Amino acid sequence: MTLSNLKPFAGSKHREKRVGRGPGSGHGKTSCRGQKGQRARSGGGVPPWFEGGQMPLIRRLPKRGFKNPFRVEYNVVNVGDLARRFSEGATVDVEALKAAGLVKGREVRVKLLGDGEIDFAITVRVHAASKSAREKIEKAGGRVEILED
After folding, report:
1. Mean pLDDT across the stretch 113-122?
2. N or C: fewer beta carbons within 10 Å in the chain?
3. Burial bucket for residue 119 (CB in 10 Å: 0-12, 13-18, 19+)
4. How far apart are CA 110 and CA 108, in angstroms?
5. In the prediction, which pLDDT does 28 show?
6. How many angstroms separate the CA atoms of 121 and 112, rounded?
7. Which residues contact residue 77 at a Cβ distance below 8 angstroms, ignoring those fewer than 6 apart?
8. Strand order in 128-129's β-sheet?
9. Tens digits of residue pLDDT in 63-111
10. If DSSP codes are grouped into helix, strand and coil, which group holds residue 19?
């Protein structure tokens, strides 16, 4: 078998339907569009979502919820993650967290949560921190600074 003798399977290819080429073709005059009507016209037809005048699906379904346009999304980092990735005396800010692979994205806001334990002092600069996370860092002798954004 070579490229020169390849051909498609029998029955897999069909001849093009050449419409509007006279009565002998079998597809002449109205070009397979029937007589009059919306679908016979140029540009006629309905969009795929049209349901024939029936109440559209999007209007039949119940509406639920509310999307707050002012919501602030935070990347979450736990105290235990800081204890595993950083050493004593470290200053942990957003750039250091990105370098450590704890947060991803360009313009990120970080919130520190209190899951896990830490037993050494570090300085943490984040956009928000939970009460328990703040207590654990300060109990270990560290500091939590909240960034203004």
Report:
1. 94
2. N
3. exposed
4. 6
5. 92
6. 15
7. 97, 102, 103, 110, 111, 112, 113, 126
8. 75-78, 110-113, 128-129
9. 999 999 999 999 999 999 999 999 999 999 999 999 999 999 988 999 9
10. coil
- Rounded Cα gap, residues 80 and 32, in angstroms: 71
Structure tokens at 25: 């073709």
Beta bridge partners, 70, equal none
Query: Which domains does the chain possess?
Result: 75-146 (3.100.10.10)
Six token digits for residue 45: 């037809």
**Three-state DSSP class for residue 144:** strand
Alpha-helical (H) ranges within the chain are 57-60, 79-85, 94-99, 131-139
* Whole-number average pLDDT of the chain: 93
The whole-number pLDDT of residue 1 equals 84
Integer Cα distance of 32 and 55 in angstroms = 31
User: Quick one: tokens of 86?
Assistant: 């950083």
- Bridge partner residues of 143 (DSSP): 123
Beta carbons of 141 and 106 less than 8 angstroms apart: no
